[in-house]
Amino acid sequence: MQNLVQLVWENPIVALILGCEVGLWVLLGLGLVARYPLRMRTLSTLLLAAIPLLDVVLVVAVALDLLGGAEPRPVHGLAAVYLGFSVAFGPSTVRWADVRFAHRFAGGPPPVKPAKGTPERVAALWREWGRVVVAATIASTVLGVLVLFVATPEQSGQLSWWIGRLWAVVGIWLVAGPLWESGSQTATAGRR
Fold it and tell me: Is the pLDDT of residue 38 over 70?
């Protein structure tokens, strides 16, 4: 715990990433409470619509930090990765939470999870992988913009390093996710 506190103290961007993650869940929780138990749909919509503003704050803070001469650290790249995944997975996370909250507190239908080996499961994994591609594209674009327009030549190497790693994750996700499940489904169908 002491190491985490020291890391946050020495790297304000880490504190901001953590703050954005906490803020996401707080806004999501408040938005769902406003929507269902309180039945304040407009307030709920405003709270949920505020979630992307956290991402804007993070990007601006990273750009200002680098423009201020900060030495690029892994945390600057992590901020871009966080942004990409937040934008790509944010709407599906809100839908995921909304279905569960509605079921638990508003009499909504239970969440449906496709069974392994079914075409629905394979389709869901392909959609998820598509979101990973979108996340990597957004993060790579942000990193590229930072490298081209914000970072000094000395700063750019640390930021560029993240782009290759992101696309390696995309490839691993493809193999371990939809391709693996598609292969399992084909093998199961072949045995029938």
Answer: yes
Residue among 13, 4, 21, 54 at smallest CA distance from 158: 13
* Average pLDDT of the residues in 46-61: 91
The predicted pLDDT at position 49 comes to 92
Mapping DSSP onto H, E and C, the string for 21-48 reads HHHHHHHHHHHHHHHCCCCCHHHHHHHH
The encoded tokens of residue 60 equal 């601006």
What mean pLDDT do residues 62-79 have? 82
Rounded distance between C-alpha atoms, residue 57 and residue 146, angstroms:
15
**Scanning the structure block, which residue is given the tokens 């704050």?**
57
| 24 CB neighbour count, 10 Å cutoff | 19
CA 57 to chain centre: 15
CB-neighbour burial class of residue 145 (10 A; exposed 0-12, middle 13-18, buried 19+): middle
Domain regions of the chain by residue span: 2-191
Place of tokens 């449906």: 112
Give 151-158's long-range contacts (Cβ < 8 A, gap of 24+).
151/66, 151/72, 155/66, 155/71, 155/72, 156/72, 158/72, 158/73, 158/74, 158/76, 158/77
**Cβ neighbour number for residue 34 with a 10 Å cutoff:** 19
d(CA 59, CA 138): 12
- pTM beyond 0.70: the answer is yes
